[in-house]
Amino acid sequence: MLFDKYAQACRGASLESVKDHNMAVPVSQMYTVASYVLTQKMRRVRRYPLVLMLEPLFRCNLACAGCGKIQYPDHILDKRLTPEQCWAAADECGAPMVSIPGGEPLIHPEMPEIIRGLIERRKYIYLCTNAILLERKLDEYAPSKYLTFSVHMDGLQEEHDHAVCRDGVYDMAVKAIQAALKRGFRVTTNTTLFDDANPARVRTFFDAMMKLGVEGMMISPGYSYQKAPDQKNFLKRSRTHQLFARILGDRKRTWRFNQSPLFLDFLMGKREYQCTPWGNPTYNIFGWQKPCYLLQEGYVPTFQELLETTNWDGYGTGRNDKCEDCMVHCGYEPSAVSDTFGSWSGFGRTVKMTLMPNGR
Amino acid sequence: MTTPHHFPSDSDSLEGRVFRPATHAELVEAVEQAFDYRGDVSLQLTSGQTVEGYVSNRESHAARPSLQIFPKGESGLRLIRYADVEAISFTGKDTASGKSWEAWVTKKEAQRRAEAEEASNAAKARGHL
Asked: What is the predicted pLDDT for the residue at B121?
């Protein structure tokens, strides 16, 4: 009964939101996620995955400075997950959403087949791409409510090209986004922001992406951990709060974010959450990564083993030096989603924040 | 998606180092270093054999501690027991060394452009651009 009430409330709110506020996420996706989370809560499942982070390869066609995902010997970069391995991971994990980062997924020759199999499984897929190959590869995919191209955009032209260490990439991405939208694909952007981000420029960037017509935007703070915490590191968290408060304060109603509004509140320092490291489990050529997308402390062959053998209480803010300043979406957005569906008050806050992003 | 920036400082690279552990604790530590290393290592085994490859995982707390290595030039994964490891040499290039954002920012523009060009040419050669 409680499930039905929640689901109906969510569905009703979403429909209303779509009509009035041009929501970033389709109703069917919201309903699927809401139903899934509520089912877990009804069954009193303490740890459940929300988004499978599927890394089918580490090879990329960019070499962004500081990227910790692509620095491997060539024979490792040449390895790829097969479609069957990708589908098995999705089946085993059971999360309703699959994010495909990398490396650059569009390099994978079997990516269209992988996507087709995931769509057959009714997974909502975010294919994360730098969009260099996107326009050229669009013919290999069919528009679907289940498939979203999530284009990596770290800011306006100057900032983005600087971040990816290559001139011209911003323009290529914009052109690819336009082509994908014209063909009816779902397109979002994903943006990583660091301490040196200029809030005014980021706001202008949001305007530019909305003008392009993307469905929504995803943002997350970049994260740098040091083994030995020091005062400087502790300040980083407060600097993140300040940065996002300046970026997201007095939010324009034209901006649409493909994220939980409570997570955005968290980034602004208006809400505290503990990390949910099992929320976005990572699977790649090495296996299931312990404990999360960012920390590589080992691998296990099955998702069940990941859940059962990871010392989850050893991770998160205040529990582990490596996690001290982390506010990244892969750990904290599942916490925000759990908050939304954990109580009526959480649900109410989410609806309120969705309808009135600047309200308190 | 989010780009993680978690590197040891560039001067910490183990490239070229050789570890000949005298105790089990030293061996455990050496394997940990090999696991964290973003390049190939060469394992000298007690059998006299040498295996070169990328250490992708390790089980130091298992009853029979072992590591997993992707041998260079082979498609499969190989399991090697700690007890069979005599020495670990960091023979492969440390692919993370000098690749931090901080290092990139401090480089001169010409060097940045040269590195970007090199990466671009490598991607083009593979047909990825």
From this structure: 87
Give the pair of three-digit tokens for residue A336: 């925000």
CA-nearest of B62, B99, B96 to B81 is B62
Nearest CB among B2, B40, B129 relative to A330 is that of B2
pLDDT at A9 over 70: no
The pLDDT of residue A224 is 62
Task: Provide the 3-class DSSP secondary structure of residue A136.
Answer: helix
For residue A188, give the chain B residue with the closest CA: B1
Mean confidence (pLDDT) of chain A: 88
Size of chain A, expressed as the number of residues it contains:
360
- Cβ-based contacts of B38 with chain A (< 8 Å): 71-72
| Chain B CA closest to residue A295 | B6
> What confidence tens digit (pLDDT) does each residue in B1-57 have?
334 433 444 557 899 999 999 999 999 999 999 999 999 999 999 999 999 999 999
Through-space distance between the first and last CA atoms of chain A, rounded to whole angstroms: 30
Strands laid side by side in the A147-152 sheet:
A216-221, A186-193, A147-152, A124-129, A97-100, A51-54, A282-284, A287-291, A296-300
Residues of B in contact with A291 (CB under 8 A): none
User: Which residues on B lie below 8 Å from A223 (Cβ)?
Assistant: 2, 4-6
| Dihedral over Cα of B14, B17, B23, B28: its sign | positive
HSE on the CB side for A124, CA within 13 Å? 20
Give the whole-number percent of chain A exceeding pLDDT 70.
89
Locate the DSSP E strands across B46-120: 50-59, 66-71, 78-81, 85-89
| Chain B residues in contact with A65 (beta carbon < 8 A) | 99-101, 103-105
CA distance between the termini of chain B: 20
Residue to mutate among A283, A286, A332, with most B CBs inside 10 A, is: A286
Tell me whether residues B54 and A75 touch, CB distance under 8 A.
yes
HSE (side-chain half, CA atoms, 13 Å) at A335: 20
pLDDT for residue A232 is more than 90: no
pLDDT tens track for A61-75 = 998 877 778 889 999
Q: What one-character DSSP code corresponds to residue A46?
A: S
* Chain A residues touching residue B7 (CB < 8 angstroms): 66, 68
Q: How remote is the C-alpha of A282 from its chain's centroid?
A: 12
Indicate the pTM of the whole model: 0.89
- Burial (CB < 10 A; 0-12, 13-18, 19+), residue A229, is middle
Determine the longest span between alpha carbons in chain B, in angstroms.
53
Q: Does B73 touch chain A (CB under 8 A)?
A: yes
Backbone angles phi, psi at B99, to 5 degrees: -105, 10
Average pLDDT estimate for A3-28: 48
Q: Would the pLDDT of A318 be above 70?
A: yes
